[in-house]
Write a structure and sequence with these properties.
The complex is a heterodimer of chains A (about 375) and B (about 250).
Chain A: H1 8-21, H2 24-44, E1 51-59, H3 61-64, H4 70-78, E2 80-82, E3 85-90, E4 98-104, H5 107-116, E5 121-125, E6 131-133, H6 139-154, H7 157-161, H8 176-206, H9 209-214, H10 220-250, H11 258-279, H12 286-303, H13 315-321, H14 325-339, H15 343-366
Parallel strand pairs in A: 1-4, 1-5
Antiparallel strand pairs in A: 2-3, 3-4, 5-6
Helix pairs in contact in A: 1-10, 2-8, 2-10, 8-10, 8-11, 8-12, 8-14, 10-11, 11-14, 11-15, 14-15
Chain B: E1 8-17, E2 20-30, E3 35-39, H1 46-54, E4 61-66, H2 75-81, E5 82-85, H3 97-107, H4 112-122, H5 137-149, E6 155-159, H6 167-184, E7 187-192, H7 195-201, E8 204-209, E9 212-217, H8 219-223, H9 232-240
Parallel strand pairs in B: 3-7, 3-8, 5-6, 6-7
Antiparallel strand pairs in B: 1-2, 1-4, 8-9
Helix pairs in contact in B: 3-4, 4-5
The chains are: A alpha/beta (about 375), B alpha/beta (about 250).
Chain lengths: ~375, ~250
């Protein structure tokens, strides 16, 4: 009678776990998809991307008489002419090659090209030196201007020489993929808990299974704890597989404390499990549930710096963003992965996350509708 | 446990949902071993009444005693006494019939031995390893009945246990229930749209409409209420102007 396999908590955990892993799509979306995303983004942002600046050249009266301006001389020396355009390639091993395309055209047409986004800079070529017109708030135009004016003054040598003073970052923990993987691990916890736990509860409620279960001597908290526990083990498996992929393929390593990482991982699961229970505490409609889950998950996915740093957002928002659960998880994971962080560096976040989870769990269970 | 003459006593119970008076002052008593059918069209208040007996809903007024106990403060004891199946409960699709039964057995601290007994009782032994979503409608209803029988309940509350089943599947469930009556003196409250179900299974028939009891008694007593009724449906039309199964 006292066998563990007869205990309701054991049976509930086994039932929920079986339900998760027996759905083949769960394996795809939970395990394969995050790995594909890590692979795709990791590849896309680690390749050197060459700059290709496009400029429109407008000849002024002084340059129409045949005498050569500095720009014309540089173009005919280094550029490949094709119809009325020149292609200049600036070589640099460390920075990646840069290309400059100059389109000779009329003043009127130059503005048309600019408006269409086909060029970012208009060069008025003259014997006294060129004038560059562009939108100074555009990073792309600014970079194009800097390359082009350097080329006009110094030819191709100046860009090639830049490499002497450049030290490319290949150090572990400083690449984009090092930033990305901890973020993806955090996002995985959020998504799996909010969709997995909330959706299961809402589905059970609409099927009247919750109602059937509470008409037995089952302890209500056991049901929720089992749901959270089964989900936790699934999340752990997903995270380990994603990490193994990142380790083998991108050589991502954990520079800090593995113990701290595990504690933080658990705290993150507690936080989002509690949030998931609260989300799903009342509704039996999957449409309503859908909206509520999206309202919680989408803003964090955008602002919490999973894919790109949130430090580009306005200053006043950052103080708020820093305390979002997903931000705390992703940032602390990064401290451990990339900065060699230990429990001393992340205990505060772990405590806050666990408290968020416990609080939302308690509120959720107080307002919980079983039928 | 108090040795009450009635296993279930419902005294003047009322229940409203917002503006709808679902149950308007109903009283009834059920003896141990008695099978009672609640008949009536949709919206008659059958399900609400049964759910109040099950402890799922609280009555606004009136009292309900099961084996002399009220739901308040006695939930644990009463959950051990009753077995129930709800209208259209769906279990977890990706669990097998056996795993589903083991799960519910664990709530009553019962082991695999009792689960095997119940599978034999409901005649679903060859479907133990089938996933719930691969069971037919009749097999699912039998599984739901099996879950209700795990704890050897003294009172069974079945909400439309055979709705949507073909005559064969229906008769199989009826035979299981009659077997229980003989072997364990189980009481039954059953809601149904089907007159023949009530006629075949039940000692007493209660006809409800719009939250009140219109008539009750044995089939013969009820048919004797008016002259010339050949069936419950005819009686029902004369009482309410509507068909029983509307």
């Amino acid at each position: 009678m006292n066998k563990i396999t007869n205990h309701q908590l054991y049976r509930l955990i086994v039932a929920h776990f079986a339900e998760i892993i027996r759905e083949p799509a769960v394996i795809f979306w939970g395990v394969v998809f995050p790995i594909l995303m890590a692979w795709g983004l990791g590849i896309a942002f680690t390749q050197k991307t060459g700059v290709h600046a496009k400029l429109a050249v407008v000849r002024t009266e002084q340059t129409l008489d045949g005498s050569k301006s500095k720009l014309s001389a540089a173009l005919s020396e280094n550029g490949i002419k094709q119809d009325s355009s020149y292609l200049v390639t600036l070589k640099n091993v460390k920075l990646g090659d840069a290309q400059l395309s100059y389109f000779e055209t009329s003043s009127l047409n130059a503005y048309r090209l600019l408006k269409k986004g086909k060029v970012s800079v208009i060069v008025a070529d003259s014997n006294k030196g060129s004038t560059y017109s562009f939108d100074p708030s555009s990073q792309e135009a600014k970079a194009a201007y800097q390359l082009a004016s350097d080329f006009e003054q110094n030819g191709t040598q100046s860009y090639a020489k830049m490499q002497e003073s450049i030290q490319p970052l290949t150090l572990k923990g400083t690449r984009y993929v090092d930033f990305l993987i901890p973020g993806l691990l955090g996002m995985g916890i959020m998504m799996a808990c909010c969709w997995g736990i909330s959706y299961t509860i809402i589905d059970r409620r609409s099927k009247k299974l919750l109602r059937r279960m509470v008409a037995t001597p089952m302890r209500k908290t056991n049901l929720l704890i089992a749901l959270i526990t089964a989900r936790f083990f699934m999340n752990l498996a997903e995270a380990v597989l994603l990490f193994i992929f990142a380790w083998i393929y991108f050589d991502v390593t954990i520079q800090g404390s593995v113990t701290a990482l595990i504690i933080l991982f658990m705290a993150g699961n507690i936080a989002f499990s509690g949030i998931a229970i609260l989300i799903s505490s009342r509704t039996a409609s999957s449409e309503v549930g859908n909206g509520m889950i999206n309202a919680i998950v989408t803003p964090m996915m955008v602002v919490s710096g999973v894919f790109f740093s949130y430090h580009n957002f306005p200053d006043w928002t950052i103080s708020v963003i820093q305390y979002l659960p997903l931000t705390m998880i992703a940032d602390s994971f990064r401290v451990i992965f990339n900065e060699g962080g230990t429990l001393i560096d992340v205990w505060r976040e772990a405590v806050i996350l666990a408290s968020v989870g416990v609080t939302t769990f308690v509120i959720g269970i107080k307002t919980f509708k079983w039928y | 446990m108090i040795d009450a003459p009635f296993i279930v006593e419902v005294r003047n119970v009322k229940k409203s949902f917002k503006d709808v008076h679902a149950v308007k002052g109903v009283s009834l008593s059920i003896k141990p071993g008695e099978f009672v059918a609640l008949l009536g069209p949709n919206g008659a208040g059958k399900t609400t009444l049964v759910e109040m007996v099950e402890g799922i809903q609280n009555p606004d007024e009136g009292e309900i005693f099961i084996s002399g106990l009220q739901w308040k403060n006695n939930q644990h004891e009463l959950h051990q006494l009753i077995g129930l199946s709800l209208q259209e409960t769906r279990f977890m699709d990706k669990l097998t019939a056996y795993e589903t039964m083991r799960l519910f057995a664990s709530f009553y601290k019962l082991d695999a031995h009792r689960v095997d007994e119940v599978f034999a009782l409901i005649g679903l032994e060859d479907k133990k390893k089938a996933f719930v979503d691969n069971l037919s409608g009749g097999q699912r209803q039998r599984l739901a009945l099996g879950v209700a029988l795990l704890n050897k309940p003294q009172i069974l509350l079945l909400d439309e246990p055979t709705t949507g089943l073909d005559p064969n599947a229906r008769r199989e469930i009826w035979n299981i229930l009659l077997g229980l009556k003989k072997s364990q003196n189980t009481s039954l409250i059953l809601t149904s749209h089907y007159m023949e179900e009530a006629e075949y299974l039940c000692d007493r028939i209660i006809i409800m409409d719009q939250g009140t009891i219109l008539a009750q008694g044995t089939l013969a007593e009820i048919l004797a209420l008016g002259s010339g009724y050949r069936s419950l449906d005819e009686l029902f039309i004369s009482l309410t102007g509507r068909h029983l199964y509307e």
